[in-house]
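FORM 7B: Structural annotation worksheet

SECTION A. Query
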Amino acid sequence: MANDHYFSANPSSELRERQVHVTLAGRDLTLATAAGVFSPDGVDRGTRVLLGSVPPPAASGALLDVGCGWGPIAITMALESPEAEVWGVDVNERVLGLARSNAATAGATNVTVALPDEVPADLRFRTIWSNPPIRVGKDELHDILLTWLPRLEVGGDAWLVVSKDLGGDSLQRWLRDTLGDAFTVARASTDKGFRVIRVQRSA
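SECTION B. Predicted structure
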């Protein structure tokens, strides 16, 4: 349907599940995607930029993928840090099912895929990786980031990939102005028109 978006809670479009061949954490995998989800044909360019530029995630503790979609970021974190507790959150019920199935296919047994409200309220994260859902609109995007970034552990960091054309530079300024002195916000890299923004919690 015309008003069906990858950030809809329950896409009404026909499922039309398909298989995609991807390489995550150095492993060649065949995973499932479907209609009504973000980037159904494979790993999108922004996510590839993020995964190609971030340092390895923390080896232990809780790690988070905000807006996990069908799971490429969460699965990568889990395969690279098998002793960590990885969470992938999304509001789209269709992708939650796909992400769970894909994590099992990849052997990423340390991934929990959940709705945002299902994450324990007292859980704090050592690392957050995200290709955030820019197209939900600025206010909603800001609410999402202000929900999760303050849940970083002291010393923890978040890595966000945002297209320059979709407001990567203005988002970086907003994060710096909004998060306050307890956080350091900086552009970590630029590649293929995308900004990778690092947010580190210092206090």
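SECTION C. Observations
The CA atoms of residues 61 and 84 lie 5 Å apart. The mean pLDDT is 92.

SECTION D. Sign-off
Analyst initials: ____
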